[in-house]
Amino acid sequence: MRLLLTGGTGKVGQAFLHAFLADVRFAKWEVVALCNNRSVEEGERVSAVRGSMNDPAIVAEVMDGVTHVIHMAAVKETPELIFDVALKGLYLLLEEFRRSHYARQFILLSGDCAVGHIFHDYDAPITEASERRAYPGSYALTKTLEEVMLEQFGHQYGVNWSTLRAPWIMEKDDFRFALDFSDAQFGGPSWAELIEEDRLQDCRKGGYVPVLRDVNGDYLKRNFVHIDDLVSAILATIDNPRAEGQLLNISMDQPVDYGVLGERLSALNGLTPVEIDTPFYSNWLDNSKARMLLGWSPEIGLEQMIERAWQYKRAENDPRIVWYPG
Predict the structure, then answer these.
(1) Which domains does the chain have, with CATH numbers?
(2) Which end of the chain, N or C, is more open, meaning fewer C-beta atoms within 10 Å of its C-beta?
């Protein structure tokens, strides 16, 4: 078997590749990584092709002999690239895949941006049958269109596809710094847009944790997944006949309740909760389908997420990288 991996140098790609190569189920598989700005470490079972997904010649070269594709590459908030790279790139990959005699499965890593996560209101848990409602921005638009494009190639040409839809992905100390009031904050929301300047400066002194309230005044509930659980779900999807033609939500069993989060961090770390009103909506990404079809379940809940994030110590050669704006 020969696996094509796009986005192999990103956060999820690096973690997946390490786990894939260590999994005895895939001991005889080869991996080819399509790389553009960075490159993976090549070895006995791993090779790399440098180039862009919007180049038909590069895509044809990298797809030669490929049986499985895991497409993780994304251009994020770069509007000038979304059509020429994100959408044209996926189209070229799928065109080569559907014509190939080797092709067996095409897996797409998508995100809850396709259902607007905290930007849109849902009156029930968000399942795979829920309406797609992208939040503002080019990244959410591309992921929504990618999901639809892959599904349509299944209808049009019988492509065996699987889409895994993940919320905000946490690793190492990401979760801790997603709650940080300083310039070291990882991701969003921007505190300056939600808190008065004087109050924000007090919070920046340290010892505080944001406790967000949703548009209805209740504690915000937001979906997360730890990278280890996401990787295990991807591994469970590969060559799994129960995943054929399936869109699957991959998330924690329950969204993080910021009220509970504030209580836990106050008790465990002595942090003072700071309640913040937001225009966001509480949502619940339902992972029941993935649990049933894949035999997968997340192992890392809120307690473990907190413990891992606060105990992790970064080495000097392990900087926190924001892989994309937002």
Answers:
(1) 2-169+224-249 (3.40.50.720), 171-222+254-282+300-311 (3.90.25)
(2) C
Give 159-179 pLDDT, tens digit per residue. 999 999 999 999 999 999 999
Task: Quote the tokens at residue 68.
Answer: 């499985």
With bands split at pLDDT 50, 70 and 90, how would you rate the model's confidence at 198? Answer: very high
What does the alpha-carbon distance between residue 187 and residue 201 come to, in Å, rounded to a whole number?
Answer: 19
CA-to-CA distance for 270 and 96, rounded, in angstroms? 55
Residue 82 CA, distance from chain mean position: 18
Predicted TM-score (pTM) of this structure: 0.95
Q: Is 100 helix (H, G, I), strand (E, B) or coil?
A: coil
Distance, first Cα to last Cα, the chain: 36
User: What is the DSSP secondary-structure string of 183-208?
Assistant: TT--S---GGGTS-HHHHHHHTTSSE
Length of the chain: 326
